Amino acid sequence: MDFAFTDEQEMIRESAQDFLADVSTSAAVRAAMATELGYDPALWGRICNELCWQAIHIPEEYGGLGLGFVELTILLEQMGRRLLCSPFLSTVGLAANALLLAGDEEQKRQWLEPIAEGRLTATLAWAGRRGRQDAGAVEVQAQAQADGDGFVLSGVARYVPDGHSADLLIVAARAPGSEGTAGISLFAVPADTAGVERRWLPTMDQTRRQAQIRFDGVRLGREALLGEAGEAGAALEKTLQLAAVCVAAEQLGGAQAVLDLTVDYTRERVQFGRPVGGFQAIKHRAADMMLQVETSRSAVYYAACVADEALFGETSCGELPLAASLAKAWCSDAYFYCAEESIQLHGGVGFTWEYDPHLYFKRAKSSESLLGAASWHRERIAQAIL
Amino acid sequence: MKISFSAEDERFRDEVAGWLADNLRGEFESLRFRGGPGDEHSFPEERKTWERRLAEGGWTGVGWPGAVGGRGLSINQQVIFHEEYARAGGPGRMGHIGEGLAGPTLIAFGSEAQKARFLPGILAGTEYWCQGYSEPGAGSDLANVKTRAERVDGRWRINGQKVWTSLAHESDWCFVIARTEPGSVGHRGLSFLLVPMDQPGIQVRPIEQITGTCEFNEVFFDDAVTDADNIVGAPGDGWKIAMALLGFERGVSTLGQQMQFQNELDQVIAIARDNGQAQDPVMRQRIADAWIGLRIMRYNSLRMLSGPQDGSLSKAAMIYKLYWASWHRDLGKLAMDVLGPEAEILEGAPYDLTRLQSLYLFTRSDTIYGGTNEIQRNIIAERALEMPREPRLG
Questions:
Q1: Chain A residues near residue B76 by CB distance under 8 angstroms
Q2: pTM over the 0.90 mark
Q3: Do the beta carbons of residue A345 and residue A377 sit within 8 Å?
Q4: B259 and B356, same domain (yes or no)
Q5: For residue B394, what pLDDT is reported?
Q6: CATH number, residue B259
Q7: How high is the ipTM of this complex?
Q8: Is B22 helix (H, G, I), strand (E, B) or coil?
Q9: Which residue from A276, A310, B20, B329 lies 20 to 30 Å from A123 (Cα-Cα)?
């Protein structure tokens, strides 16, 4: 047991922190979020070509760097801290893991290599219109072709991260009449496939894009199917658990950022002849924010270690569902708490568009509902312990 | 970053568990899960006998260096020892103030003669210690100590009063922060003295608590004496040593404390299952939240214990007291809410509390002793977040 970063992990953290401080400034985030694409392609190109972050945990046999989930988590934390607008979570945190868990060797080579090389963005479309975010939320239907060995997809997927821009869609679809996690299949669907209709959904949090995707009788060959037909429920669940750890890491970074913003501001802001940060009414609330940040850090990195074992370990790690739910539940609440405190402790300027707290406040709420809110994850834990 | 223990450490875990299974039985069976915080007044003599059994097995001073007679275990093995001890229901340690506070202080700051005189008694479970810090006028403001000591006839003569001294009536020695420089204020002019308890100049008076039981005491010093060389460090070093000692408190034994918390939470869960509260959606959320909170407490401790052990407090360590104290207090409340009307019914008259009732009431002290939540927040804000300091006198 040594629950601290190795020197190499610390180097990754520092270089990510320094790079993002330069390129993902408040001005850069605001510029990116004003575009329909939602990110700066030139910056994404630098990330892919100079830093290879998109390849970080993809195994070397598929062209990746072959590092672990902890290293991935380190990057996500720093991205969340700087509100980096990019297709990283969708491509790496969702689609790549789905491919790793559900694809056969050929499919993994076909799709993971271009992802690792930075030539392909991807996402996962799983949730339907009812607002659920778990594996049972799949509404798109997959019917076997009457005239071949392929499938026909029909229905609507909603809340798809970067769904309007991703090159490749990993689509979860269910057999007609199936329920819950039964009958689910995963398909790799190029976004330009005939019958795929994508619509950007403008969102309150402008730092992460969402889309609705309609599948209007989309005909897919057998080769699009990842794994066995109707058997991908477990792989989808595991993908979503890993992604929950990824989002929790972003949330940790965001919570740290609003704490830092708040402490800096209250040290500068003078009222009654003193910096307001000298009043206990402010200090105590900042201390409570730090408690939330540090406990989130403990939760996130523990879950990252568990996720690493679950994805790459010798044993199938049975601890992942609980560790992921624990981290997502805790960090969702922690980030929102810190973000709302940040607005309050900034006073009037915290309510303006000009200052940054609102960006984090909005991101905190959208991250909370993404992949299951805190109460949903707590109920998952209640089912396990009660 | 690695969260699993090595095969060697897991073998050590088996050794600890095996020893406890072989020894925590027979005459000691009734001590299991007893004597912890809120129950420290129970079975003092039997628990001292148990301390000596532990000593015979080599399980005292497990974290002390081998050179002073300790076992010199690695951090990981100390974690394992404390976890297994608590898991087996090992009784609250009568010797914990000696082993956890007095001993490490002497190891760090004591003279060779002091180490030779005092460490063996702590390790053998034959001499017990209490802590003379707080006073009626020096609680959160610890530097406001008024108890004074003066050199008279080759000895220290001590006058004043300490308060909240746990186990004072069971202790042989007390380490006392006293003002040795007349007229000094604040943290200057304080000294760290070792004072024998069994003398006419010391009177111990128990304090009846919210629980109706007495673990804490008032200790009155009325021309009490101790030998001239029973001072740790030099006169005036008292504050420095007292502060260093507070750092020793946040050690690996917290992992054992968490195992006790887990036992309490398990009991709450069992009751919820039994009385149907486990079906209530709001209660399910609260119980799951408590479970999550305790897991995170463990991860946070593992983070505290990893990385550089240079004596500096990491951020994970700085939030720890505030975090566990608040969590534990909330568990007490949750326990009562799960019990519903049954929470009111005592084990017996006049005021015989159940374990969970005692938890509920006693945890009100968790957020007060050892630095109140408010003091913890000041420390976090000023030291970790570098926000402006409170105005200070002296």
A1: 1
A2: yes
A3: no
A4: yes
A5: 44
A6: 1.20.140.10
A7: 0.96
A8: helix
A9: A310
